[in-house]
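Question thread 4412

I'm putting together a teaching handout and wanted feedback from people who do this every day. The idea is simple: show students a protein as raw sequence, then show them the structure tokens that encode its fold, then repeat with a second protein so they can compare. Below is the first pair exactly as I plan to print it.
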Amino acid sequence: MHEPNTLKYRKFSGFFLREIRGGKYCPGKRLPSERELARRYNLSHMTVNKALNGLVATGCLERRQGDGTYVKEHGLPKTACLVLDYKDDIHAPFPYIMQKTLFDAGFIVTVFDTLRMSKKPSLLEAYLENPPELLIFDGWVNFPFALLKHVPETTRKIIFHRCEVKPVFDASYVLTDTEKCGYMAIRQLVLSGKQRLGIVSEVSENEYAQANLFKKGCKRALSEFKIKNAMFLESRPIRGHEEASIPKNDILKILKGENRRDGILAWMDAELIPFITEANELGISVPEQLSLIGGYNTPWADYHKLTSADIQPDKIAENITTVLNSKKNVTVMIEPKMIFRESCPQAREVYSARLKI
């Protein structure tokens, strides 16, 4: 079966644009005739004509009456493909700031939602037939990493916020230091005098998952501060709910009785809301009897006055701008920042004498 003409001209358009960017056809120089290009690339004259017309329409080329077709000076648009999570995340921190960062850097941006695209990877695959100059994505485990082998070396790749697979790609990384989030939260609770700690995080068998990196940081702090009776609670999907959650019986177990906790932290702010509700019903005062620390510093944290580990999206975006100006691949880890509110006020270093900090 012959390849459809529409597919041929689109492929050739992308290929020819890469040839221009690669320096084969220089800005300000006249191109060979369409018939010569058709002969050179073993294509029909119609395919070449349609591809060049498209590049003229986008401002990459210009036709001069009676003189031929030229590569325009400064006419090449910078294109970027941004893949991130926004469809099911009510407080997604990155869609606006990442698009603004790329626009400010002069890119024309195409945006894909990770979860929706993971169900139809052919959409991204078709888009990448004419590869952009930049592929930038949140390395959530649902991203179709297998597609990266089809992305040419000429397309720069940046993975931001997380990389939930082994980081073996020819790319720059600007990542949240998720392990540090867990460490900082435990440290703050201990400095506040809390010793019976509960730690809430999603279940994952993937060692690179943020949930496991968060728990790794928690365990490092627990070991360093010699806290031995911490309780880990795993949030799991509950029938009738799309998001992972903690069953009410498990919440009650750690809020009353002999297993009662005096400090609870969660990787996501929203996971603490059920604990706030039950603590209020049980008459448990926050933060005197129960301190709470969340993560991501979402509007939930502000509304419920939760101390939270801010992943600093603005700082991630700022570093991406720096990476774009670098000619080499780099790796940057962004340390979270504790935003203190009523659920766990900033502790004075009153326990530092007996803790190895």
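The second pair follows. I'd like the answer to focus on this one:
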Amino acid sequence: MISEGHPGDRRVLQQPVAPPITLPATRLLLDSGTIQISKGGSTAGINPQGAVVRSWKVEGRELLFSHPNPENRLRASHPIGPMCGMLYDPVTRERNGLHVIDGVSVKMPLHGGLREENWSQASKRSGDEAVLELSNVPGSPPTEMAKHYPFNYLWRLGVELPTDKKLVWDLSYTGLSEGRKAPVDMGWHLYLPFEQGMKIEGLNGLRYDDLTAWDAPAEGTILGPGAFGDRINRDWQIRLKSGPDGRPRTEFAITYPAAGYSLKMKLLSDRADTMIVWSNPVLGIGDFICPELWRGERNSWKKGTAEQVGFNEKAGLRIELEYVPGKAVAAKG
């Protein structure tokens, strides 16, 4: 049986059970609850169920991958938080999600559970921006996440199209537990189309750093130009810090030579220093690649490196995507 979890949370390489299904780039089902925003020739669809960005089109070209079933929140671009990845025992390496909060053992789901929640629409301004909120406060019905994350909080997600070629994704957390600090990591689990020969540019000089790997370089390898390409079945954890100051690399691009465009990415957070890159064609739902952009690291709750956010304090992650058209390059046969 194939697990639906993140491939980095499994220790054994899966065997293919079915060939991947390539979906047309324009095929995407949006249900009636999807919030539509637009700017010039650009449109985006955001579903409050899981705060999932299911579509972003520029000049009619779909730039995101989404599962064709709109009810599937797992295989679409969704928020991560209040932890990244899966918690594991630092001694046995067992990935059980267990953690102790206020003397009580709780089991955290993969990535914390934000994608399992039904968010509310806070506002939609001028047709080019939507804001979603998820809160857990006294007197209100508890969220599902509150069962394993016993804090009061406000999550807010803004999705904006500032120009007809840019999308801005802005996630923030506000602590609302008086006299308490809560561990908070967050990220964006992007799903993009996969193309043979695609590359991630801007990683030159960065270090590969991971617990496990399927088809990746040895831990500590310094990455070269166009680090990702050709081979699809891999799971990398890349530390975005580089240079003598140790600050995170904040800008890079994913290029699609055959399709003739690239996506520039910019991370605006001083703690956004991890990118997970993976793909899994054996799931049989299409060819995709996931560059997960994290403000945190794996097992940070156990390591003690998660940010501790107190009452009325905030943490956030802002990511900008820009579509850059170019000239298509025929694949080498």
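Top answer:
Good format. For the second protein you could add a caption like this: The first helix runs from residue 300 to 303. The CA atoms of residues 97 and 108 lie 5 Å apart.
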